[in-house]
Amino acid sequence: MAALLPPLRVCRGILKELRAMQGPTYKLSPAYNYVMDQFRKNKASLPPTASQLTVTGQMYCRAQQEAHHDSHTYLCLLASNRTHLALHKLYHGKGDRSREEVAGLVGLRLPTQPGGKGWEK
Amino acid sequence: MFRGIARLQSQFGNILSPNKVRSPHFRFALKYSTAITERKRFYQDVSISQGEGGLYEINLDRKKLKTPGGKLFTVPNEVLAIAVATEWDAQRDTLKFYTMHLTTLCNTALDNPTQRNKEQMINAALKFLETDTVCYRVDEPHGLVELQKNEWDPVLHWIENRYNVTIGSSSSILGPEIPEATKDTFRQHLNSYNFWSLTGLEFVITQLKSVVLSMGMIDRHLSVEQAVLLSRLEEEYQIQHWGNVEWAHDYDMYELRARTAAGALFVHLSSENSTVKRKLLQDREG
Which family does the record claim for this protein (chain B) (predicted)? Predict the structure, then answer.
């Protein structure tokens, strides 16, 4: 099985998706703040040095691997949602036209009754 | 004749009168079956706030979000609330409910429209094990047999080792015989999940059509893309042979990926509780 992408690429991917979703104000969103916090907190893409080992005692932190997998999952969610929406817009049927549009196709308009029809309140 | 039509119209109007008292089940079925797929966006800002009991709520402009069943929309932790708020914020002119998977999952967990309890959900999940995709093998074409052996066998071995169970694979039409001990082990394991996580897990199982692959993904042995690929193994084989049809194959694959990813994230976020333990040295520095 192929390994997961390195955390930096996942982080960049998530930020790209957020920017594509929300436009230039994506840095103000709570999602951006949370994602950046999490990546900073779990940052150890390099193996820990000896000093780090004595201070924090982390070697292969399970929580870190879990967070890495979760970030990958979230990136997959955002990216595939965007692609799915694009494909939907491109290929999915538009549905029926409304009655007004259909009448307009042949140059007619639907009749209106200002007082409402007899049985309507 | 006109009087007859008018009487018919009034009868019709009475049936649709909103004042009629209906049972909750009927109301649920109505709300969940006559689902609207799109709506215009009616709010500017999305924000989250913490309500009573530590539960988080979503605010659209000044109004609080509600589930289709009418309850207040609450989530147990902040991360899920942020993700749901991001979903709502991502909508442009129209709200496309079919892309808001996390919101849908939360609604299902909160409303429970089919009114099931944990035991029923676990039984349904275990029933799926008997018709698990990974256990059903073909006899021919040879390439597909090889592919299934190379890709699915490792996952089967992994789950058999992880949970200490036996799940065979078979190419007969009846499928593999799952021993009771296996089912009991899984039942015990699934019982440790709370109701929200079980909702998500069942969603993932239904999407991937496999309990083995779902457990592999939830236990973080497989990534979402890998699980989806393994679930669609035969389709991928046929695509390589006959060609890819973008408006069907790609559309399905991305939709499956989005739903599976949403389900997995939902399970992980609903079942984790993170605490921060400060170590002494950091305390002294801070």
Answer: Belongs to the ATP12 family.
Classify residue A23 by its DSSP letter: G
Integer angstrom CA distances of residue A88 from A74, B98, B195, B246: 21, 11, 32, 11
Angstrom distance (rounded) from CA A16 to CA B97: 23
Q: What b-and-e string marks burial along A41-79, b requiring 16 or more CB atoms within 10 Å of the CB?
A: ebeeeeebeeeeeeeeeeeeeeebeebbbbbbbbbbbbb
CA distance, residue A91 to nearest chain B CA (Å) = 6
Close Cβ partners of B43 (under 8 Å, ≥ 6 residues apart) = B60, B61, B63, B88
pLDDT tens figures, A14-71: 999 999 988 888 888 889 999 999 988 887 554 555 555 544 545 567 888 888 999 9
Which residues of A fall below an 8 Å CB-CB distance to B?
Answer: 1-2, 4, 18, 21-22, 29-31, 34, 55-56, 63, 65-66, 69-70, 72-74, 76-77, 80-81, 83-85, 87-88, 90-91, 118-119
End-to-end CA distance of chain B: 87
pLDDT given for residue B35 in this prediction: 62
Report pLDDT digits (tens) over A51-67.
555 445 455 678 888 88
Does the pLDDT at position B11 exceed 60? no
- pTM for the whole structure: 0.81
Using alpha carbons, list the distances in angstroms from residue A72 to A5, A11, B46, B77: 8, 9, 25, 20
ipTM above threshold 0.90: no
Report how far residue B60's alpha carbon sits from residue B118's, in angstroms, rounded to the nearest whole number.
Answer: 32
pLDDT in tens, B190-212: 999 999 999 999 999 999 999 99
- The predicted-structure confidence for B169-181, as pLDDT tens digits, reads as follows 888 887 788 888 9
d(CA A21, CA B116): 36
